[in-house]
Amino acid sequence: MPATDQLNIVPFVSVENMMDLVLSTGTEIFLRELADYVEEDFLRWESFDKTARVASHSDDGVIELMPTSNGTLYSFKYVNGHPKNTRSGRQTVTAFGVLSNVDSGYPLLLSEMTILTALRTAATSAVVAKHLAPKGARTMAVIGNGAQSEFQALAFKSLLGIDRLRLYDIDPTATERCRRNLAELGLTIEACRSTEEAVEGADIITTVTADKQNATILTDNMIGSGVHINAVGGDCPGKTELHRDILLRSSIFVEYPPQTRVEGEIQQLPQDYPVTEIWRVISGEQVGRQSADQITLFDSVGFATEDFSALRYVHDKLRGSECFEELDLLADPDEPRDLFGMLLRRQALTAA
């Protein structure tokens, strides 16, 4: 962290800084450590202010703000989702976030969150799967081999011991890129020709597609008993991946029901359809997987506490690190009430 007492200086983690921080830590270690923070904050779920994210939708995508606080720290994330961006060489999802001190309101950290969101989404998926996946799970199918796929694979490898991947994407070049990126990381990888082929024999099925529409990535006949489904791609109104019949056969676990009922797979079901909040399972208040043939479904939409956890982890991780820049972000006049005088002094300085 900055070795300065200047109140105007805020540590800023750029994309380059974030990549250096992840690589100097080791990607799998980073995911495991981040997962610990995510799990810690699920365990103190009741201490958080919680609200569904504020979303601005258009025909092309969505821009969202995701705020939360535990009474000591406050965070928010700005994030978009624009599937068509790939046509112009842009990311589907970009993000940045802020962590602040509640006592003063002063920010403690400003960080890129495009990379960090992919890491926290994968870490959260794996934390949940620790509590829901079938015992001894080794094989995962990943349907949708875009920007999140490698992170998901590494998180499940690191936290659950997954060592076999079955990949499918409607774009074979995406599958080949994912296979190539993961080739030297200790996974046995099979590129499949269809969703049906990919899910065959899988213990865990991760769906992480990007199209902003009600799609049917998985149909009921593809899903055998005992699997865990990690449904990541459905994350806004009108965007789903699973056939409704799969939901009706599954035990459904969610982050924050008021948000998930609007954005997740369960938008296909009545508003009072029973679901289980995942924090209750992590805390031991409720049971997750109850039998070997049970189908468990994590209807993942991403919630603000997970971004809070990620920013809190990065803030702590920066101690003793040089993976940040000092950003002159806040006005810091000599006398707090003399903000205009600060302008006058700047004017005199530049005129000299």
UniProtKB/TrEMBL annotation:
Coiled coil: none annotated. Keywords: NAD. Pfam families: OCD_Mu_crystall. Gene3D superfamilies: NAD(P)-binding Rossmann-like Domain, ornithine cyclodeaminase, domain 1. The keyword Ribonucleoprotein does not apply. It comes from the Bacteria. This is Ornithine cyclodeaminase.
